[in-house]
Amino acid sequence: MQILLLILSILIYLFFGKIGFIYLLFSCISSFILSKYLNGRHKKLALIMSITLTLILYLFFKFINFFDFKNIFVPLGISYYTLQIFSYLIDLYKGKIKREKNFFRYLLYVIYFPYIFIGPITKYQDIKEDFDHCKKFHKENFSLGIPRIVWGLFKKIVIANRMWIIINTITNNSYVGSYVLLACLLYSILLYCDFSGGIDIVLGISKIFGINLKENFNLPFKSESVKEFWNRWHISLGTWLRDYIYIPLGGNRCSKIRQKINVILTFLVSGFWHGTTYIFWGLLNGILVAFSSKLKTKYKILNQIITYVLISLLWVFFIYQNSFIKPFTMLISIFTTFNYLDLFKNIPNLGLDILNYIVLIISILTLFYYDYHKDKINQKFKTSKIEFKTFAICLLVIIILIFGVYGFGFEVKDFIYSKF
Amino acid sequence: MKYIKCIIIIGVFILIFFFINHLLMPKYSETLREGSLTREYYKEDKNHEVIFLGDCEVYANFSPMVLYEKAGITSYVRGNSQQLINQSYYILKETLKYEIPKVVVFNVNSMRYGEDEKNEAYNRLLIDNMKWSKEKIDLINSSMTEGETFLSYVFPILRYHSRFSKLTSEDFKYFLKPKQNSFNGFLITKKIKPYTSLPPKKVLANYNFSDYSYEYLNKITELCQKNNIELILIKAPSLYPYWYNEYDNQIRQYALENNLDYYNLFEEKDVIGIDYQLDTYDGGLHLNLSGATKLSEYFAKILKDNYNLTDYRTDKKISSIYNEKLKEYNKLIKE
Question: What is the ipTM of this complex?
Answer without folding.
Answer: 0.82
